[in-house]
Amino acid sequence: MSGFTVQAFEKQLNNLNATQQSIQTLSLWLIHHRKFYQTIVNTWMKELKKVKSSRKLTFMYLANDVIQNSRKKGPEFAKEFKSILPKCFELLAKEVDTPTIFSLDRLLKIWEERNIYDKKLLSEFKAILHAKHKSAKQNSGINEIGASNTNKSEKNSSMRSAEELLMSKMGEEISKSVDMDKYEDIEPEKLIKTLRDLENNSASNDEETRKQIANFPAEIFDAEQFESVMGKDSIENWSKVLNEAQRILIQYNNRLACELENRKKLSSMLVYFIEGQRRSLTQKEKLFNEYREKLKKIRSVREELDSHLKNLPDLSQLPSVTPLPSPIDLFKKETN
Asked: What is the CATH topology of the domain spanning 6-170?
């Protein structure tokens, strides 16, 4: 992996795009050079101020990838970014459009769910984001959503790619529709096993393969750079490099496709499981109502019985009467 210099980092930021591969590759490179974390964060902030508003969200997704994937090996990144994020969100609020604000809200929500930063701090970030954005819109009188069709198309395309990356990081690839006609009961044990298998064997968490991809020569991803280093003597060597890179990428893409299908199946299982719980709840509520009605009837009968018992005469208050003669007394009279 190439050495770190500010110039090299600035160049890579300039070439950064909103694709998952571009963001993750640069993220791995930065984590590898985490000893320069202060320079990295300061340079990132400096370049964030320079880039067009349509590219600022991509910079935020790069920061997100670095912060999350360096938590174990390089927690200093999260601490260093924490110091500049207030100014960062203030800058973003003034320059980006409303859809981008919503995307940033979603990013803050992920940080909250994953305990990246404490809730109080994230609430402050969100307040800065919305207060400054509202103020900027009022002062300028310009609705950024109504920009030219060309710029809007570019922003939406960039946002879609970045959103796809964010959703993949969350593991929230969800199928749009689930056929309830194929409903089946899902046991909790089966659901837990599927979740664990997906967590332990997912391609998106394969750091080793991601490092391999990050270590590919930068020239193979840039046609202009590739032509500049290409020569007659190096054709065979570059051919081997390209073939190996192609093999690894095909395998990794196949694994990602398989993971995507597994996530869709898991999504269906979750829908079925929730539906099963809903049906079970409905059935138990029905049973509860039935027994509640039975209890009401029992109480009503009990009240009637208590009332009836209260209306019975008190035997102790009845007048005394001569008891009937016993059989012995009758026989005595006949004998006499």
From this structure: 1.25.40
